[in-house]
Amino acid sequence: SYNQPIGKGVMALALVMVSIDNLENRNTQGDLIGTFSSSDIALNISYGVELSSKFSFGSSFKIIQEKIDTYNANAFALDAGIVYKPKDKLTFGAVIQNVGTDITFINEANQLPTLFKIGAGYMTMKNRLVLSLDVNNPIDNQPYISAGAEYSLSLKKNMDASIRAGYRTGLTVADISYGVGLRYEKFFLDLAMVPY
Description:
The structure is a single chain. The protein is mostly beta strands. About 0% of the residues lie in helices and about 75% in strands. It contains no helices and 14 strands. Strands 1-2-3-4-5-6-9-10-11-12-13-14 form a 12-stranded antiparallel β-sheet, with no helix packed on it. It is globular and about 60 Å long. It starts with a strand and ends with a strand.
């Protein structure tokens, strides 16, 4: 990802990719006939602006490509959110994600997984530790709750490292995620292991 101040706000570009290899490919009789891969790629173009000392607004335009085996599909989507900060260490937010076009595989259109969420965050330990809690309401599934923590360390001037962990209700296989992040000046690198 990359960000750049523009006017009173900040513009950002981010490329997000999720890929799974060696999935079993079976015919209609259930026989294994090989393997295939699946991937999701999204290019995000975002802009955020501080409306006042307590309110901020941001939005992202997304170009999405999905691939399953030899089939490709594309879509466009919009995210938008608002943040309210009543105190220096306390933040509330609301966002709607993936409002956009259907994504179509082999003439079958599917609606993007639109999601509405509200949440809160609190900073402590001299702002090194951030705690968060979200209530999520997807249009195609049951509501669920997410909680997370991020601890940041300053490695040297203009460079920080972060350790993250999260928990989500409603998953049947794994409900804990974790990751690390590295920031150098305006550049960010984030890696995560997330239940799929």
